[in-house]
Amino acid sequence: MKKSQLRSSVLLMVLSFLFSVSWATSLSTSSSGDLISCLQSNSNNVTAISQLIFSPVNASFLPIWQVAVQNTRFLKPSTPRPSVIVTPMEETLIKTCVYCAKKHGYEIRIRSGGHDYEGLSYTADVPFVMLDFTNMRSIDVDVAKRTAWVQAGATLGELYYKISRETDTLYFPAGVCPTVGVGGYMGGGGYGNLLRKYGTAADNVLDARFMDVDGNILDRKSMGEDLFWAIRGGGSSSFGIVLAWKLSLVPVPKKVTVFILNKTLEQGATEIFHKYQYVAPNIDRNLHIRTQVFAEYIGNTTKKTIRIMFEGIYQGTTDTLLPLLYRKFPELGVTREICEEIRMVQSTLVFWGLPSSTPTEILTNRSAIAKLNNKSKSDYTRAPIPIRGLKKIWRKLIQNDESALLMINPFGGRMADFSETAIPYPHRAGVLLQILKTVNFNGQPSDTTPTSLRRIAWLRSLDALMTPYVSNNPREAYSNYNDLDLGVGSTNYQEASVWGERYWKRDNFKKLIRIKAKVDPHNFFRRPQTEAGTCLRNRNYLRTVSSGTGTALGGSGSNFYFYETDTRWIPAGSDSNFYFYETDTRWIPAGSDTGYPEPAVNRNRAKELIPDFLTLVVLGFLIFIFTKRKKNTPTP
Ligand SMILES: Cc1cc2nc3c(=O)[nH]c(=O)nc-3n(C[C@H](O)[C@H](O)[C@H](O)COP(=O)(O)OP(=O)(O)OC[C@H]3O[C@@H](n4cnc5c(N)ncnc54)[C@H](O)[C@@H]3O)c2cc1C
Ligand SMILES: *[C@@H]1O[C@H](CO)[C@@H](O)[C@H](O)[C@H]1NC(C)=O
Ligand SMILES: *[C@@H]1O[C@H](CO)[C@@H](O)[C@H](O)[C@H]1NC(C)=O
Ligand SMILES: *[C@@H]1O[C@H](CO)[C@@H](O)[C@H](O)[C@H]1NC(C)=O
Ligand SMILES: *[C@@H]1O[C@H](CO)[C@@H](O)[C@H](O)[C@H]1NC(C)=O
Ligand SMILES: *[C@@H]1O[C@H](CO)[C@@H](O)[C@H](O)[C@H]1NC(C)=O
Ligand SMILES: *[C@@H]1O[C@H](CO)[C@@H](O)[C@H](O)[C@H]1NC(C)=O
Prior knowledge:
The protein is of the alpha+beta class. It is built from 19 helices and 23 strands.
């Protein structure tokens, strides 16, 4: 072996040793001994608790994380995963988890069903512990009182199934995807097939069991109406942890009527859809007609068409539905032959694309429903889209490579009975349609292949094309269809309003910020697009609006005003609970001096980077020596 060869293989060995050391160190950092020993030492049964805690060294860590990653777009090796997963069976461990995460500088992410459109319940750019509700999914239905207590980890399918085992004449007005978790769903409002008759799911929440940042367990009475308002549509995970919801069940007939039919462009789809915009949001509240718009090839040909699938559900019999439709919407062409009278629980199957005869147990099978692989955006219309607008949208859909879908739900009915500020969910009177625009990455290994990127670009340009036809000022968006494209800026109100006012509108968003400031002043419960806990985290926001001692402070045009005294901020006027005083290092809410350190995330991250940095230094040094020696080696 030549000397130089020997030298390079020694160098290689050293390098690979260094890499493995660095890899092992980062592994042990991410195995998070500090957090795990905190969890264990704060438990009275270490054996029991150890079975509920997973770090990357446990073989079951990855499967547990993956099982509820409902959007396979985030199942990439590069997706950041939690440092620790905790799967509590009861509330004490949740409290311990909050305490230990705070103590050791981890953020927390809460996962119930795992359907978050941006994966925010199970991935983050900072070290975090994932609190997974999979073991907390009990459901207690009280038929006589028409209520149910549901733990956060239960799915909508499990809730429907459980209700249907007790009665055919009660249901809960929520969505049709059986694997969606009640934990996340209710926190964003939640729409479904009964929205025209009963409003959103959050409108039908009666009470909650909720853990705040200090580990206190609250109910509606002890949390107060402001916080109870906020968690029904304002994104509960910004405020704390939902342990369970108390739901009001609603009456449904023993049999409902469903129908499905397709209309293509050749069958007059454009004109029928145009009329649908006038009829569906204004018709009898018992009728809900969802539509899905596809662009596809006609049979074997190379010519494409638009197919619109109309899916109707009527709280009544075919005999009353048909005359109603003949009167209001004869063009749709619904006939007795395509109507089917089934139980409400079966309609959930039908709207999920299954035959009504499918055994309803499937609603509780979390692996029976295929995961999606999508990027989505939402819109609301407040005026009918004119025919020429529809034609533009169809043309755009036809340009897509069959990866796109529009899913459309008409509003109106009960939705208009609620004021925009009744709960944070603001898309109420005047909304005609809610439109979900989505592309999938099926057949693509990731969402970053050229084809995937083309699809995302297409989705964004569809968004632009639809601008004239959808709501504006703000252009409304559904917070449960969260979309980080809308922006994540949050250093001040102006930046946060870009996305916040689209999800919640101005008045609600400002109220959410005030409530957030009160209940989580250190902004422990954070994620991208958290109600400007942001504005609190960034003291500069308060400072920039400061105009000196004893004067009113406020963001432009906001009601977010403070008076500054030497060491305290006091809100102008009304709410005396809401003030803070500043010490050198932290904000402490007045009245509760149990301050805790701000999450030491950055320090922690720095710690993780140290091994890599060391490797680089040693590496650089070795390369330096090596090249120097090589130069000095006399040529034979
Ligand atoms: C296939 C599919 C179908 C859908 N259909 C509908 C529909 O018909 N109607 C509708 O309104 N929406 C629908 N959605 C959107 C859905 O409502 C949201 O994605 C919702 O947030 C999912 O809740 P989750 O518990 O399943 O998700 P997760 O990803 O677990 O959570 C979503 C968000 O809620 C937070 N969260 C979860 N659990 C808790 C808790 N216990 N306490 C506090 N915060 C918590 C998470 O941190 C995260 O921010 C659908 C989504 C998908 C993917
Ligand atoms: C601790 O938990 C284990 C496993 O769940 C159980 O077998 C054991 O009895 C528990 N011990 C005590 C003291 O409760
Ligand atoms: C995961 O590994 C840690 C450390 O070895 C152990 O304490 C814990 O009990 C393991 N968790 C499970 C669920 O086996
Ligand atoms: C609608 O069209 C799709 C695609 O051609 C087809 O699979 C489905 O069965 C049709 N539905 C009805 C009710 O005709
Ligand atoms: C589709 O094309 C194939 C081959 O070109 C042909 O055999 C078949 O009959 C066609 N089917 C229809 C429905 O036109
Ligand atoms: C759930 O669905 C999966 C996939 O269809 C199936 O393999 C499994 O047997 C089902 N489980 C139950 C308990 O029915
Ligand atoms: C994902 O995309 C596919 C196809 O485009 C569509 O059928 C499905 O409904 C979409 N799901 C969601 C939740 O966006």
